[in-house]
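User: I'm curious what two different proteins look like when written out as structure tokens. Can you demonstrate?

Assistant: Sure. I'll show them one after the other, since each token string lines up with its own sequence. Here's the first protein:
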Amino acid sequence: MAPTKLGAWSPLTEAAVGFALGAVGGSILGATEDPVDKILSVMTSAGPLKPVMEEVRTVGALGLGTLLGATALTTVMTSVVAGVILAAVVASVFVAMRSCGASHTDSAGMWASAALAGAFGTTLSGATLGITIEWIVRAYGMVGLLWVLSIFTMLKPPLHFVFKFLWKQGEACCTLGSTVWDRDRKQMEVTELQHRQRAARQIEQTILTLEKGGSTGGMENKTTWANERRQREEIERRKIESEEAEMEQRTIQDWITTVVIKYVDFLAFSGIPMTVVAIVTSGLGVFGYGGHQSVFIVLLALVVVIAYLLMKSSDFKFWMLIGCMAMLATFVIALLTLHAGQVVVTAAMKMQAAGQSQSTENISARMNYQSSLEALNAAVFVAKLFELGLGATVGGPLVRRAAGEVKVIAGAASVAGGLLVGLEVLGPVLGEGGKAGAMLGVVGAAGVSVGAAAALAGRWSSWLGTLGTIAGLVIGALGVGKWHIVNIGLQLPVAYIFSMTNPF
């Protein structure tokens, strides 16, 4: 379907169309609320929460918060980049296949194939990471998770250079497209030359006939010249179409390469700030300083220094922005984790003042429980926000590049809905960790739809179109999401901000 011609409709029509498209994006966002809540309720039940509670004593409340936050956000970033890269590979192959001829066909098949590949890659990557993290925590505890996270973070920068090299090699293998275009261009030039030579011979023959006093052929000659003119026009038309198709192919391939490079940089470097924070605070916890106030001071100083160094960069990049945001989100999760334990202590002091004494073991157990519960709740919610936002960074630019508002919004919503159904069927096989990771892929696909709708809201020529789209987003999200006002009220602004961000 062709992109919507914004500004070609009346304000009321824009409002109606915007409301409908906004409602589609909002509805799929609302549809993710209940599945996420169900997964979270299972993860925070007594059995799955027990291994996390036992590790609070090892790494401390702040260490637990930063470690769970960094792990959740690393899962989000990795799954998103895996989806983007797989989508880019499919799109590149599709472009290379299209280049085998000079004719230009509609690009709907390419976008649909890339979207399905991206959603599948994100979901599969999230499920794999979720299962892996669950196994590591059960088998080796938070210390094992800390080691794995540290090793993975250190491996990403060198792997990023390896991947860039492999991508360039892959592009070199696709030079068949350029060869085909060169061959078609040469064939076109030969055909054009032959036509000119034939026309020149006919003109020369006509001149010689006239010099000898003969007849030029009358109607037969006119028919010949008309055929020659039609052939010349056909050659020119095919030449223009070939040039346009070649230019489109090169433009799309250049854009795909730009996207891949930006997202590979994002994966390689954006997780470093939050991982450094998690390593420092968890390390201090392992050495017995988990509950000391100095850990909070070190954590705050570390966050401020890293944020300052990144923000002052003269060449500020997308991965720096997301790196700062992820680090600050990790810091917030750590504060919430610490605060949950302090609330228990405050309540115990009040009870003791009222004459209701409690044992130290009981208070410590309640502190560990509340800290672990808050750490998991905050980590999952922040991970969902980031997944939604990163999905919106894909949907928003696609709409601004005129990929087709209806295709992006409805297509991403349909893919997310299909993933939701598939997740319900495969849930028992994936386990809780795999289901939680796969659910991030669903949220990412929903984020593409929401981000596209948010970008569309700013592209209408009238305020009625903008307000209609926003109203559709809000009503669709709240209605299908069973009026989770606080959660959705936080997610929609985040999706809008990310949709306005251009990572390319």
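Here's a second, unrelated protein for contrast:
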Amino acid sequence: MTEMDGRSDLAYRLIRRAIAEGDFEPGSRLVEQRIGEMFELSRTPVREALRALAADGLVTIERNRGAMVATMSETDIRDQYELRARLESLAAERAATRMDADAIATLDAAIAEFDEGIALMSNGSADAALRRITAANNAFHRAVVEGAQHRRLSVLLEHAVDIPLVYQVFRHQTEAERQRSNLFHRMVRDAIAAGEPQRAGALMAEHILQGRDSLLQLRAQPGRETETHAS
């Protein structure tokens, strides 16, 4: 995402969340005036936010058609998750040789927050729980990437991780599947803390590819094709 002022950044975050949570469906038009009215923003920050989202791949902007929510093919999903698995596997390997105790504590906090989200989900607060789970998941993976202390790798992963796709996976997972996802977080954390780079990298790759498989299974269900967003 390019540098933006406060209002444009707010518009970016609001529109991105709306795409992630399915309020704006793939292929639907994003009309600046309507979005501005929805979020009580002027058209200028909305326009700048849409351009930033287009740079991220979440939105397409075409002449005479304007902005639309991007869609993603099965091949796109496979390609993206393969790239992400390789990059995050490398990040986990590097993190296993570079993370200190404070950074490990950040992983622990994210894992605990993920557990809280799962518990909240079982109490029926679905929207709040999904946001909490997704935020905790993002915090865990971000901490691993930061722990790798590899600036170029961090920049590459900004464009390889699709938050809307992750959100859709968590939305349709069972509690057991969410528990399994956080179990992988724990195993990756333990491998990093033990200074085992190969094990940490292998576990991270398997974790990412299981997310890919869950998403592809979701797409295969009747009536679910329109729920897949692009990055």
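A detail about the second structure: The radius of gyration is 18 Å.
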